[in-house]
From TrEMBL:
GO terms for cellular component: peroxisome. PANTHER family: 3-HYDROXYACYL-COA DEHYROGENASE (PTHR23309), PEROXISOMAL BIFUNCTIONAL ENZYME (PTHR23309:SF49). Residues 474-574, 611-697 form the 3-hydroxyacyl-CoA dehydrogenase C-terminal domain. In the N-terminal section; belongs to the enoyl-CoA hydratase/isomerase family. In the C-terminal section; belongs to the 3-hydroxyacyl-CoA dehydrogenase family. PROSITE patterns: 3HCDH, ENOYL_COA_HYDRATASE. InterPro entries: 3-OHacyl-CoA_DH_CS (IPR006180), 3-OHacyl-CoA_DH_NAD-bd (IPR006176), 3HC_DH_C (IPR006108), 6-PGluconate_DH-like_C_sf (IPR008927), ClpP/crotonase-like_dom_sf (IPR029045), Enoyl-CoA_hyd/isom_CS (IPR018376), Enoyl-CoA_hydra/iso (IPR001753), NAD(P)-bd_dom_sf (IPR036291). This is Peroxisomal bifunctional enzyme.
Amino acid sequence: MAQYTRISGSVGLITLKNPPVNALSAVVRQGIVDSVERALGEPEVKCLVICGQSGKFCGGADIREFGKKMTGPPLIPVFHAIEAAAKPVVAAIEGIALGGGLELALGCHYRIAHSKAKLGLPEVTLGLLPAAAGSQRLPRLIGVPAALDLITTGRHVTAAEALQLGIVDQVTDHNTVDAAVKFALSVAGQSLDARRISTFPCPRLSNLDAVFEAAMQKVRQAARGAIAPVACVQAVRAAATLPYAQGLEREKELMATLFTSGQARALQYSFFAQRAVGRWSMPSGARWDTSKPKPIRKAAVIGLGTMGRGITVGLAQAGLSVVAVETQEKQLMEAKQAVSGMLERGAKKRGVSPPLGNISYSSNIKTVGDVDLVIEAVFEDMALKKEVFQQLSAVCRPGTFLCTNTSGLDIDDLASQTPNPELVVGMHFFAPAHVMKLLEVVYGPRSSPQAVATAMQLGKVIGKVSVAVGNCQGFVGNRMLSPYLSQANFLLEEGATPEFVDQVLEEFGFAMGAFRMSDLSGLDVGWRVRKAAGLVVPGKPARMRQGCRYSPLGDLLCEQGRFGQKTGSGWYQYDKPGSRVAKPDPWLHSFLEEYRARHGLVARRIDHQEVLERCLYSLINEGFRILEEGIAAGPEDIDVIYVLGYSWPRHRGGPMFYADMVGLTRVLERLEFYHQAHPDVPSLQPCNLLRKLVASGTPPIHRWREVIKKVHSQL
Ligand SMILES: CCCCCCC[C@H](O)CC(=O)SCCNC(=O)CCNC(=O)[C@H](O)C(C)(C)COP(=O)([O-])OP(=O)([O-])OC[C@H]1O[C@@H](n2cnc3c(N)ncnc32)[C@H](O)[C@@H]1OP(=O)([O-])[O-]
């Protein structure tokens, strides 16, 4: 709702009340209309102030209403009524003014912001554009280049930047509503002719075409198939070239296309999924709302390689006290220098001082005796990790949580090295650990709910989106990647090239195709895992392992020392070791030809559809298996992992959302087709849960949990 009160007799105060972010729901919109009308009708009222309750101005349109039947007054006329008012209307912006929230403020005659407020038009991140006249008013207020930047990136700006850009008129460190009331009284009675943004001409640009061409090129490059950023540029162009009323029409047209697009649905699903993963649950019945985390004040990181350094930086930046341990003195010194550099660069960017004092460095593991939680981040080697866990059990005080940063090793096996396995959880960070948003929190069968809650909470404190998942080979992300990569390899055996497979996957929206990504992460990583799993056995029949089809192509490249970018060659060739520019490699092409000839394989023409379906559907099928086994609690968990950790195109929601969009019946049919053609590839065999979902009438994704629950109850 919107509450109307009178302040100092002559100020009408409208307070938006719709927790948690005062979104502009139908009731709020109606409340604004009624309150404005009332204030304008009261002769004693000289001016109006609009604010939001609980220190939040407004988080924009109510996203929960999208896709439902529209009720209540539409936003544009509401904002026009405010702008047309004969009494000054001042927006008192505390906390946030985002999307429709900022558009509401732009409809007001003046804007006063608290110094800690954040403002922005993030609609593009939801697959939309600022369609309550934001795309038309903002360029008129701050000029085309600045508006293009804000609208196409959706970035939030601080109050200070908003003041500099001319979005707000005043910034205060004190009570914003008081400041706005005072300000409103000071301008009461003055002409408002120069305050109505919709009447402003858009500032002229001599190089208009060049500016828009450059903007379009930039978004097309960054967007990888996303349509909203392109529509945002088109809407701003309308503001720059058309009268306001026509610009609004164009904005409406563009919004209509976006609103009904699958991309907007995917991005909005992704928004809610990222929040839903915080409400985790375990098959044991333990849940986020019944498991209390223990506060962590002091943590230790063991092993200061690339991952350990990033984790140390993340913890220190979040204000925690960190003991950073590396047993070799020389490596310890190198790590200290690297960590300090990372902290200094990060602090410079954020305009704060680097939290160097939060970290104490040590070469002695005994120094972690008084910490609340340890994150072990030594080399991915089970024997080494076990040794470290045994040492930690001896030196840590009782009750210390022991976490391991691993991308796939058995958490329970490690936990068995300690007298208190309930205190052990996995924390799978993604490189670079201080930058990547994703954290897989892996619980073993003996991890306590409190240990999981603590790791999840710690993830939140250091700015991660944490997803709780069960213990299995590769957890969720890497386990699903395995059949995807296998298919990519099989396609090469059958006639494709790495360039073609990557091109198809990149056109789909991945930042990098399977082979470019493998070259970047290092081919030796998977080789080591396959060796440990007993798959790389010289002398075995080359293309079968444990009764299933196996491609040794990656192993053969590693045997040649081709580990990817770091060695200057892998699936591609590079100018020099470490170079990032991948070039097709004639050597690789002849190697593939020889390989096919040696194994009697005849290259055939493989089309886009086959590459996409085999790579993606096998990955999705593994996702269904993961859900069936209860390793992930719901499809949102998998989708968040893939969007944040594996560069799955955000505008496609995630693999499970994509399956829903394609249609589960179609996914099932195609998997059946490919499994018939490749009966020795078990990952192409449709899993039970997928069959059950189809049999139960292909419910939409938000209802899958009901079917999953039934499957679990039958087990
Ligand atoms: C043809 C039709 C014409 C339409 C006209 C277009 C109008 C306009 O241009 C479109 C928009 O405004 S688009 C909108 C543009 N605005 C945006 O894109 C802003 C989106 N929001 C954000 O970026 C962040 O939530 C904040 C920074 C606001 C708070 O961050 P934080 O402090 O870390 O908190 P948190 O954990 O993130 O959220 C807490 C709870 O609030 C919930 N919720 C949040 N916003 C919501 C909303 N607008 N709505 C509903 N709910 C919203 C959120 O789900 C969560 O619920 P849960 O049940 O507890 O899980």
